[in-house]
Hints:
Layout: E1 4-6, H1 10-20, H2 26-44, E2 50-57, E3 60-67, E4 71-77, H3 80-90, E5 95-96, E6 99-103, E7 110-115, E8 125-129, E9 132-133, H4 137-148, E10 153-161, H5 163-172, E11 177-183, E12 186-187, E13 193-194, H6 200-205, H7 208-211
Parallel strand pairs: 1-11, 4-5, 4-6, 4-8, 8-10, 9-10, 10-11
Antiparallel strand pairs: 2-3, 6-7, 12-13
Amino acid sequence: xxxxxxxxxxxxxxxxxxxxxxxxxxxxxxxxxxxxxxxxxxxxxxxxxxxxxxxxxxxxxxxxxxxxxxxxxxxxxxxxxxxxxxxxxxxxxxxxxxxxxxxxxxxxxxxxxxxxxxxxxxxxxxxxxxxxxxxxxxxxxxxxxxxxxxxxxxxxxxxxxxxxxxxxxxxxxxxxxxxxxxxxxxxxxxxxxxxxxxxxxxxxxxxxxxxx
Length: 212
Ligand code: PRP
């Protein structure tokens, strides 16, 4: 499918083993989420426009390049928060626009509870992040919010994706470029990605027992 990129990076594949393992505790889980996100970001941003810049060195001046686009990171709460941290490590000047959604357990459709898009938007590209692209409802809703705000370019980065979510996001917001670490088999009856890794929000924030 055009516009969909599934990582083939060996380090990404190795990190996925740790994320999937139920024995991986929240501190390590958060660290790996940040690490995978940095790797996915370097793939997703490989074609970001740059402009020339003078680069002084101890021996003279080199020709350098700097990123020419203003970047906004849009984490979908809660689980996108750890990915936003990873992205900020590689694009520290990016703005962060939080969007809060949770899935209605009966319908699996997203419900919006928080929107921190600034009144005056100043970004050329928005990078929407959520570790899980399951039915695709949350990703579609968030990309629609960003698109309606007038952001010209949207990139969506997830770690695990179900084929159903990729197809829905690709058809409902076709201009979005999608980067994922892996495409899993599908969804179970509760809308969880299988084989997946469980609930990425609960596993980052140590709330698995309350929601299991
Ligand atoms: C999970 C996940 C995505 C969404 C994916 O969040 O982090 O946001 O579900 O499902 P979808 O593709 O079917 O919309 P959840 O609603 O569990 O909220 P949380 O991040 O607060 O745990």
